[in-house]
Each structure stands twice: as structure tokens, then as C-alpha cells.
Amino acid sequence: MDIVSAPLNDLPWFLAYMVTAVVLTLFYVVVYIWVTPHPEIKLIRENNLAASLAFGGSLIGFCLPLSSAIANSVSLIECAIWGVIAVVVQIIIFYLVCLPIPKISERIEKGEMASGLWLGVASLAGGLLNAASMTN
Description:
Elements: H1 5-8, H2 11-35, H3 40-45, H4 49-72, H5 76-98, H6 104-109, H7 113-134
Helix pairs in contact: 2-4, 2-5, 4-5, 4-7, 5-7
């Protein structure tokens, strides 16, 4: 085995995990957009920075535990299961964030930066804790 072919032997596994990650991320985006009352993509297209911060923080908050699952799983199935758990955790975080600010979606639609930042940072913090919990 030469120095070039050794890394290429892992290429199928790289592709399998990458495809799994992309599918799970797309699944997350669809579920998140379906669950939240405000139309994230429409608002982002309209240059609503609050919506962009909220959605961006949520997406990173999902991808952090997903990357932890990829790094620590022993199989694609285990990775996918942890990925679905990460989706559920992020949805729960959205509803928890709504407790102190019940009309957060309306505020984000109005472009209120504080609400978008609060949701984004809370989603990111939840994702960090989720990722750390997966590695324990």
C-alpha cells in the first residue's frame, strides 16, 4: 500500500458520512421551518437580519452535535440516530426559548434583532451542550 492509496481507501466512508450529514441537515432544515411560525427563508430573502441570526444559530446548533456524532459514532446507523436526536433537541430548544418571549416569531418577523440573536445564541448554546453530552 502506497502513501497515496491509503487515504483513498477511506473515501467511501467519507462519502457515506458526508451524504448522511447532508441528508440529516436538509431534514433538520425542513423540520425546523415547518415547526417555527415565521417563514425563515422568505424573511432572509427580504434581508431580515433577525431571522438570519436566529436560523443561522439554529443551524450551527444542529451541526455541532451532528459533527460530534460523526466523530464518535461506530456506524452510520448510530450516527443517524444521534442526528435525529440532535433534531429533536433543537426543536425543544426553540420551544424553550419561546417561554420567556412568547411572541418571538412575530418579533423576528418585524426584524427585532434582540429576539433573533436570543434565539440564535440559545440554539447555539443548546447545540454545544448537546454535542458535549454525546461524547460523554
